Structures are given as structure tokens and as C-alpha cells.
């Protein structure tokens, strides 16, 4: 006798601006971070969550943001970037503008993504997925390479294992010998304005500029963070925001004084000291971000590939966008 098969309940989506209390609870950039960061902290971005349930049981939470994406974002400075100007499209993107890796709290499926696309295309003409792996079940979406993320595994006796580059790192530490360091929990109010000014220094020089933080971001995320503050005498010349969960640490936003960096190697000194801090805190890995790949490879970092998926709600326009995929892929300069 054959078993009687009953149709499963349909998957339903709730579109909300509130993240569930246990959202991404195991991740350094988890629910506490998502709840702390909104449109005041990243102007020009609106945030939401799609909660997928079947028969009243939650199966997945999909974070997303909506913003205007400029086609010049991923291009090297040059005539094409200048020609593009402010030309772009409104996008609704699964992920978070600040997070290198895209995360969905639950199990991805083609059924889920069809519902997500159907909902998000009402927010913007282009639906995107940022920072995911290469094998998402995304029929109809175009896939392009994103920026890889440098992840450093902290082996036992880490510095002793870097035989070929150990001398180079010693030279960088020596060049920075006049710098002093403080590690603080949170961000003391007296340092807030200087930290933001240093962040803007780095943002304006970045090869890829997407989200631009407001000063409110640093206040809103202070309770989740430790900061490495770097001084030349009494003057702060650099900082790194660090966020940790369990044995994983992220060296997140940074900023520095470029008038001091050239002679004293502030950037390299901050990166090496951030690794020291992760080791001292018993971390097994530290994320070092999406810039200066050659230096981070010399440290022994793995470059973890990420992918961007996108789909226009109009089939003909989607075909055209697929031919312009190079506008969304990182440039050779950004990958150095």
C-alpha cells in the first residue's frame, strides 16, 4: 500500500524592520550588530528582514538593504568611471553593506529565493545577493565575482611559523617603534570625533567606496567593539575597530593619518598589532578584510572568494545587465 502524501504547507514571508532576538547569534556580526546599525548609522541605506515560515514554524531569516548603487563603484579611477558619474540603479540586496560575508539565518533553497525575489522586486528593480558562495540555488540570477575576504588562521606559535616573511615583519615593527598603542573596550567619547575623522581619511582614499558611515555608527556599535588606538605622541594617528565572538575576531573598520603613515608604517603596524591582540585573546582566526591583499597573503591569510548575484525584474533589462557584468566585478587595482 502506497503512503498518502499530503502537500506541505506553503512557505510564507513576513517583511519587517525588526530582527528576531536570536538572529545570527553565533556570528561576530550577528543580530546585535544588525540591530545597532540602521539608516542613521549608514545614510542612504534602508534595512529590513524577510522572515520565512512554514506552518507557523520559522525556517529562515533573510536580512536585506535597499540603496542606490552607482555603476562606478567597482571601477578604477579613469575615463569610464568619470563617464559613469552618478549613473546607477536602485537595488534591494540580501546581506549587509558592512558585512564581507552574506549570511542567511536558516537553510537556503530555490523556493526561498523565488519568494525573496518576488518580494524584494517590489522594493527596487534590481534584486541582489552580496558576499555569498558560488553555489546558491539562484535560477535567473547573474553571478559575478565579489571582493575576496582575507581570513588568517592563527596557528600555534603563529609568528614562528612565518619563516620566509618574519624578517620583513620585524622591519615593519621597527619602522613603527615611535608609535604607542591602547586597546580599549568600547569607544571613549573623547576619541569619537578623531576616530571619525581618521575613518573619513581612509574612506576617501579607498579603491572601492560603497557604504559611507556617519559618526553615529561608531557610537551605536561601541558596546560591541574593542578599539586598537594608535598614537604618535599625544596625537591619535590610527585606529582599528575589532569585533569578536568566541574564537573569531574581525578587524573591521579602520582609519589612519596618511601624513604619518608613510614614514612610520601605521597601517602595517595596526594590522600586525591586531593579529597580536587576536592571539592574546585565544582566537583561532581573524578576518582582515578586503584590501591590501599582497600584505595579507604574506601574513598567511587565505583569500576566501565571494560572489554577487543580481537579477532585474524586467527580463529584457536583465539580459542587458548580464552583458555589463564587468561593472560589478572588482577591478585589478582593487584586488592588489
The secondary-structure class comes to alpha+beta
* Domain tally: 2
Number of helices: 10
Oligomer: single chain
Looking at the structure, what is the overall shape?
globular
CATH first level of the largest domain: which class? Alpha Beta
Helix content: 25-40%
Compute the average pLDDT: 89
What is the CATH architecture term of the largest domain?
3-Layer(aba) Sandwich
Largest sheet: 8 strands, mixed
Fraction in beta strands: 25-35%
SSE map:
Elements: E1 11-16, H1 31-36, E2 46-54, E3 57-70, H2 79-84, E4 88-94, E5 105-106, H3 110-120, E6 126-132, E7 142-145, E8 149-153, H4 166-175, E9 179-185, H5 192-205, H6 215-220, E10 226-232, E11 235-245, E12 248-256, H7 258-264, H8 266-280, E13 285-289, H9 293-298, E14 302-304, E15 307-312, H10 315-323
Parallel strand pairs: 4-6, 12-13
Antiparallel strand pairs: 1-2, 2-3, 3-4, 3-5, 6-15, 7-15, 8-13, 8-14, 9-10, 10-11, 11-12
Amino acid at each position: 500500500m502506497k503512503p498518502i502524501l499530503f502537500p506541505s504547507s506553503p512557505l510564507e514571508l513576513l517583511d519587517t524592520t525588526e530582527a528576531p532576538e536570536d538572529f545570527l547569534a553565533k556570528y561576530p556580526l550577528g543580530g546585535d550588530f544588525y540591530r545597532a546599525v540602521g539608516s542613521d548609522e549608514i545614510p542612504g541605506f534602508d534595512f529590513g528582514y524577510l522572515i520565512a515560515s512554514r506552518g507557523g514554524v520559522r525556517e529562515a531569516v533573510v536580512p536585506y538593504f535597499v540603496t542606490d548603487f552607482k555603476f562606478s563603484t567597482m571601477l578604477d579611477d579613469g575615463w569610464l568611471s568619470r563617464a559613469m558619474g552618478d549613473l546607477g540603479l536602485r537595488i534591494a540586496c540580501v546581506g549587509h553593506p558592512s558585512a564581507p560575508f552574506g549570511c542567511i539565518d536558516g537553510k537556503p533553497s530555490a523556493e526561498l529565493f523565488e519568494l525573496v525575489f518576488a518580494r524584494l522586486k517590489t522594493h527596487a528593480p534590481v534584486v541582489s545577493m552580496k558576499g555569498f558562495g558560488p553555489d546558491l540555488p539562484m535560477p535567473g540570477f547573474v553571478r559575478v565575482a565579489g571582493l575576496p575576504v582575507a581570513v588568517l588562521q592563527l596557528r600555534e606559535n603563529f609568528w614562528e611559523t612565518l619563516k620566509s616573511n618574519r624578517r620583513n615583519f620585524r622591519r615593519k615593527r621597527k619602522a613603527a617603534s615611535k608609535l604607542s598603542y591602547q586597546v580599549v573596550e568600547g569607544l571613549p567619547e573623547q576619541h569619537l570625533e578623531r576616530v571619525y575623522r581618521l575613518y573619513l581619511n581612509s574612506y576617501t582614499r579607498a579603491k572601492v567606496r560603497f557604504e559611507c558611515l556617519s559618526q553615529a555608527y561608531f557610537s551605536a556599535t561601541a558596546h560591541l567593539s574593542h578599539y586598537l588606538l594608535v598614537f604618535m605622541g599625544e596625537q591619535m594617528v590610527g585606529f582599528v575597530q575589532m569585533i569578536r565572538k568566541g574564537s573569531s575576531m574581525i578587524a573591521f573598520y579602520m582609519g589612519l593619518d596618511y601624513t604619518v603613515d608613510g614614514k612610520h608604517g601605521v597601517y602595517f603596524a595596526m594590522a600586525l598589532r591586531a593579529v597580536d591582540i587576536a592571539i592574546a585573546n585565544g582566537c583561532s582566526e581573524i578576518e582582515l578584510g578586503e584590501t591590501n591583499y599582497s600584505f595579507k597573503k604574506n601574513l598567511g591569510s587565505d583569500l576566501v572568494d565571494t560572489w554577487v548575484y543580481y537579477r532585474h525584474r524586467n527580463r529584457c533589462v536583465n539580459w542587458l545587465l548580464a552583458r555589463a557584468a564587468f561593472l560589478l566585478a572588482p577591478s585589478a587595482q582593487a584586488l592588489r
